[in-house]
Amino acid sequence: MAIPILKQGSTLIVSLQAEPTDAEFVALQRELTERVTQTRAKGVVVDVTSLDVLDSFATRTLREIAQTVTLCGARAAIVGVQPEVAFAMAQLGLSLEGTLTALDLEDGLALLHALPQVTPVT
Amino acid sequence: MSVNGRGATAPKLNSAELNSLREFWDVYETQFAEIGAEIAQDAAAHPELATFVGAGDGDEVAESRERIAQAINDGDWADYLADMVAAGSRYAESGLSFSAWFATGRSLRSKLVPLLIDALSEEPERLAEAVRGVSIFIDLVILAVGDSFIDAKERIITEQQDVLRGLSTPVLELRPGLLLVPLIGFIDSERALLLTGNLLEAIAAKRARAIVLDITGVPAVDSAVANHLMQTVQATQLMGAHTLVSGLSPENAQTLVRLGLDLARLNTVGTLADGVVSASSILKAAEARAAEYESSLA
């Protein structure tokens, strides 16, 4: 089943449930990038609150999502990393460096809202 | 000859050792109560032992005598060694020093030897055997008591370590959204893990956005400690918090630079006061963001 992407104003919201497979992660990355371009969204929030594990593949995909979304003119925030997950990731040396992170969905939306809008270079 | 104080199993004695023990016991048994009283007197004069000297009523003395007889004559050491193990734990738990109870052993030896010489002066060979028996007996007792003394001390140390570990990583909430973690003492990997775990839980529970990790009280910061701190900081960033490290001493800063570590991600600030000021402004910005977002929804 495809991971649903919700739209709220100029922000796309993805809430990951029950540990997506690698293939689902790859599909999500493609889908999100297309939707950002289609809808001219300015922000993407990926909520990982319900995930108990973020392995190296998931971490890399989340980083890549943030990077591709940025190339498409929006900004992405990963929100809701649980304490145990953060602990395990730090132990394994996995980081989301270069991406925005926030405590929960609300904080993530506020963070994206406060970012200066991307203005085209003239 | 060997003895295992932990399980208090019977010592392995060869026939010569057993013979020596019996020669000695034959004499000791006759004067058992008198010697016990003399040792109690010595102990009462000892500054540390004084509080330990019980009245030593007749029953206790007789019981102890029965157990030694059972050990030496029948080879059944279990009861006597169990007594010694219990005594060792008791001494350790009440903080008696090693030398103090060792003095009791010495006192026993100094009383026994003249007694044997008196009794066996006519028969030098039996006397030599009996004197060897004293050594064997006292060695066995000291081994049993000593083993259990050290076991008990180690147990006490482990318990205290657990208590200290619980105290060692407090996470304080300076005000809503701002956490302060004052670190004091050496940081090893175990403490670093505990700290990271506690801190992450606190971020989730208190919805913290800014954290000051104060290392003023950390005497030495080497590459291992720096790596631990970096991991902690990164873990907090994953949860969307901003962590500042304050109180790195000039000496430690120079060490880290000389080690060639890249510490840009450590977000260091000068003193704890600077850290709190910076963290406050980070927190304020986050609150302003949230407020602005909320009003944009209205």
Radius of gyration of chain A: 14 Å
Structural class of chain A: alpha/beta
Give the ordered list of helices and strands of chain A.
EEHEHEHEH
CATH homologous superfamily (4th level) name of the largest domain in chain B: Globins
Question: Would you identify the CATH architecture of the largest domain in chain B?
Answer: Orthogonal Bundle
Order of helices and strands of chain B: HHHHHHEEHEHEHEH
Strands ordered across the widest β-sheet of chain B = 1-2-3-4-5
Using the alpha-carbon principal axes, give the shape of chain A. globular
Number of strands of chain B: 5
Q: What gap, in angstroms, lies between the N and C termini of chain B? A: 88 Å
Mean pLDDT of chain A: 89
Layout of strands and helices, then pairs:
The complex is a heterodimer of chains A (122) and B (298).
Chain A: E1 5-8, E2 11-15, H1 22-39, E3 43-47, H2 56-71, E4 75-79, H3 83-92, E5 100-102, H4 105-114
Helix pairs in contact in A: 1-2
Chain B: H1 15-30, H2 32-45, H3 58-74, H4 78-93, H5 98-120, H6 124-168, E1 172-175, E2 178-184, H7 189-206, E3 210-217, H8 223-238, E4 242-246, H9 250-258, E5 268-269, H10 272-297
Parallel strand pairs in B: 2-3, 3-4, 4-5
Antiparallel strand pairs in B: 1-2
Helix pairs in contact in B: 1-3, 1-6, 2-5, 4-6, 5-6, 7-8
